[in-house]
Design brief:
Blueprint (H helix, E strand, L loop, with lengths): L39 H15 L5 H15 L16 H22 L8 H13 L22 H14 L22 H5 L4 H19 L4 H16 L3 E3 L5 E3 L4 H23 L5 H6 L5 H19 L19
Antiparallel strand pairs: 1-2
Helix pairs in contact: 1-2, 1-3, 2-4, 3-4, 3-7, 4-7, 7-9, 8-9
């Protein structure tokens, strides 16, 4: 796709064969242990296999071009843009969300295929692209070199929407350009009803799957707890969202340490994420099991992560959380 960066023309990528397959942490896999999440080409292959099997009209080139474009953007190879400097909201997270989205869409179609609410190949591709690009708003423009990308946390969804309006309009899915707004389904601070109001049943479901894929792909991740400890805490401090101001004007630190962030993570899930998944998104995660023939590796992995986290909290002993995640992209200096 062309002429679609945040503030300057996107540069042509150099071809599908150039997709980087030698990134860091090559032994890392998805929740099924079958997809190398350190290899964008492997993730693209997995998603294309899912969609090609489901849809006769699936256009593989559109999706592979999307992977190439996003990889260029995150690595700072697009004119006018700086490399990704958010180690939690990184290329791996974007790819994990896209893979989860493809599996949800496939499960949805397994349930609804041939019926009134069937999605179809183009909408499925659109949904995966929106998942792939949903956090592109964290990428800084050249004029924003003085800030950390994490500082864009409160506006990154709208920035992502603005980007995708232009990106979609420049390509073969131009007729869906207005649906860039579905990225707001990933915004936990925004009511889902405001994002999905007035849309067709298929598009409502697509938005719910987009929001669901963003959440379950994170929480089910093999290194979710470690990524929160070493990467998400770092982003929160950089953005200043680790603190608030009391009524008397005093600064209150919400997460003095990474371990304090982890201690509050189960409450974050129970009071915000779980109602979002169950109520706002109508348990759309059930389509994972439809994709896997009755199995749900995301639910198992989420449960395993929280069981372990709760044991750490109960014993007040985080020494057992010994693994340190290797970033997919080099970390900027603190």
């Amino acid at each position: 796709m062309r002429n679609c960066t945040l503030d300057s023309p996107i540069q042509p990528h150099s071809g599908i064969s150039q997709l980087n397959s030698t990134l860091f942490d090559v032994n890392q896999s998805d929740v099924t242990g079958t997809v190398n999440m350190a290899n964008p080409g492997a993730v693209a292959d997995a998603i294309c296999t899912i969609l090609a099997r489901r849809y006769e009209d699936f256009d593989e080139v559109i999706l592979r071009d999307g992977f190439l474009d996003l990889e260029d953007i995150f690595w700072g190879r697009q004119a006018g843009l700086l490399p990704c400097d958010t180690p939690y909201h990184d290329l791996r997270h974007s790819m994990s969300t896209a893979l989860a989205m493809a599996r949800l869409v496939d499960g949805y179609e397994a349930v609804h295929g041939g019926k009134e609410h069937a999605m179809g190949g183009e909408l499925a591709t659109l949904g995966v692209l929106l998942a792939l690009f949903h956090d592109v708003g964290f990428i800084r423009r050249l004029s924003e070199a003085g800030i950390n990308g994490a500082c864009l946390v409160r506006e990154h969804e709208q920035r992502g929407v603005d980007f995708m309006h232009v990106y979609l309009a420049a390509g073969p899915l131009a007729r869906f350009e207005e649906l860039a707004e579905l990225i707001h389904a990933t915004n936990l601070a925004r009511c889902t009803c405001d994002t999905l109001a007035g849309l067709s049943p298929q598009l409502v479901d697509l938005g719910k799957m987009l929001g669901t894929s963003d959440l379950i792909s994170q929480i089910a991740g093999r290194y979710y707890l470690e990524r929160c400890r070493f990467f998400l805490f770092r982003e929160f401090v950089a953005a200043g969202v680790d603190r608030t101001t009391s009524p008397d004007g005093e600064t209150v630190i919400l997460y003095p340490t990474p371990e304090d962030l982890l201690r509050k993570t189960p409450g974050f899930y129970e009071h915000l994420v779980r109602p979002r998944l169950d109520d706002d998104f109508g348990k759309t995660y059930r389509y994972v099991a439809a994709h896997f023939g009755g199995d749900d590796p995301y639910a198992r992995s989420m449960q395993r992560n929280f069981d372990f986290l709760r044991s750490l909290i109960e014993r007040n002993d985080f020494s057992r959380l010994q693994r340190k995640p290797v970033p997919l992209m080099p970390l900027p200096a603190e």
